[in-house]
Amino acid sequence: MHRIVIVGGGAGGLELATRLGDTLGKSGRAEITLIEKSRTHFWKPHLHEIAAGSMDLDVHALDYLAQSHWHHFRYRIGEMVGLDREQRLVHLAPYHDEEGVIVTQARSFPYDTLVLAVGSQTNDFGTPGVASHAIALETPVEADRFHRRLVNAFLRAHAQHEPLRPEQLQVAIVGAGATGVELAAELHNATRDLVSYNLDRIDPDKHIRIHLIEASPRILPALPERISDSAHRMLASLQVQVHTGARVAEVLPQAVRLHTGDLIPAELVVWAAGVKAPAFLTGLGLETNGINQLVVHENLQTTRDPHIFALGDCAAAPWLGHEGKSVPPRAQAAHQQASHLAREFRRLLAGQDVRPYRYRDFGSLVSLGEYTTVGNLMGNFVGGNMWVEGLFARWMYVSLYKLHEMALHGFWKMALSTVARFISRRTEPHVKLH
Question: Based on the number of CB atoms within 10 Å of its own CB, is 366 exposed (0-12), middle (13-18) or buried (19 or more)?
């Protein structure tokens, strides 16, 4: 039986494992194995809501073991650390629990076809102090850790008798891409909800400051200028202090130092500037680019090994029709690539060639709180853009997550889960308090 191993259970990897399990795995035509170092899956574009406390991780996390049981694939916990391309073996490190006890020993898994979907991580560009004093929202664990620190900061400020220090209740977000902008807006709303729970010694307008720091001349530099300008105006209306053209030289224990020497006091610092693929990819003998992404052909096969594919943020896939450009690292690209390979692997098992993947740009949406979203729809899909803003744009933003849920669970489970969450939200605080 053909053995397909997928490494990485993010949006692309998990969708691919689910689709292949429902087709090739269920029919017995292939053995599908998903390797992932975490126990649960969470949709990465919503990490800023976990950090702000406006979304409960326990409600939205998906258990890999349960998903594998329901959709006819195998889930194996572990972190990939090496690859034997000659013997076609994926090597995993030993897996330890929170107390340092070994759960699984170092082991290897054979494959006939390997898919690497290990995502990306934050790029600190070697900036001093980032690793020690900033939090990068790469995983649900880190987002939840930031939220606990945020709540503790508010409890501390409310209980103390002395005046607030300059850095107290100040949050600095470095990087004004989609993650940074969305987090800034979400924090504005969440911190005011938090104060409303009898933390009355804190005046939101007087004491809370959210700083958004961007090295480029404008926020959202990768998106059209109209989206950037609209988002900037909305952030200003939310009293978010935007610093553009401001390159960070160092992150200090209680401040951020800019290249000009200016200091921005901050009790909490989030690093959301730049992404790169995991460093271990450069040691596999496969072609990589300057940010560790695997270079792949138009059909998502790696350039040096036709038995290995890559998708999502860890893949530098050519953007057909855009000479010299790679497919942007977005959730919609990972979703499209997973759907493409799910179809093409049926051809692969039949001895046919895998056809090229063509990225379709459906535009970009940026959420600025519960009721406000800006963006453009369709993008290059129809050769033009349709500007959207407000409640309709918010509905479109939410629908992206619902499409992901539907790919994993089907329509009815997605719909019932949505209704259940809607009801439970009416009986719980709008912001997580612990």
Answer: buried
